[in-house]
Amino acid sequence: MIYRRFYFNKIIRDHLPQMIEQTGINVVGHGMNGDEYGQRLKAKLVEEVDEVCTAITPKDVSEEIGDVLEVLKALAQHHHLDFSQVIALAEQKTEKKGGFFNPLCIDYIEIPENHPMLDYYIQRPQSYPQQDPMQAPGGTDHPKDMAPE
After folding, report:
1. Three-class SS state of 44
2. Closest CA to 62 of 75, 48, 44, 76
């Protein structure tokens, strides 16, 4: 018999190897050490979040969010965290800073050169790309006073 090989090269749910083998398909895999397991969980999280973003129906979105939740539980366990404590911390953060339930988006911020938070944003260029510093016309230092290019 001829077999065709398809590469997965990713972490899967615990019962899937047996479920696949019960259909007559050979499954080849390996156990992972802590570092590999942690990295593959993170890659799986990215995969599942992408699937949430591309899901169309409410049922599909619900299933994909459930998959994200399962990966988050595994990540918490991998890092020796109690998931209920993670949820409690998330709820505290929501209480303090709010959630993501209002349709708000910050387009950009304008921060003075002497502001104590300036270094925070400068040190995170992937999250907060910086436009070159501008000098506003007429001698003011506030970019809102500048005419659009």
Report:
1. helix
2. 48
Distance between CA atoms of residues 106 and 36, nearest Å: 36
| Residue 146 to residue 119: CA distance in whole angstroms | 24
In the chain, which residue ranges form alpha helices assigned H by DSSP? 16-21, 34-54, 58-78, 83-97, 118-122
Which DSSP state fits 102?
A: S
Please, are residues 45 and 71 in contact by the beta-carbon 8 Å criterion? yes
Which tokens in the block code for residue 3? 């077999």
Q: Is 50 in contact with 38 (CB distance < 8 Å)?
A: no
17 CB-side CA count, 13 A: 9
CA distances from 25 to 12, 17, 31, 92 (A): 16, 9, 19, 47
- The whole-chain average pLDDT of the chain stands at 89
Residue range 33-97 in CATH 3.30.870.10: no
pLDDT above 70 for 149: no
What pLDDT score was predicted for residue 136?
52
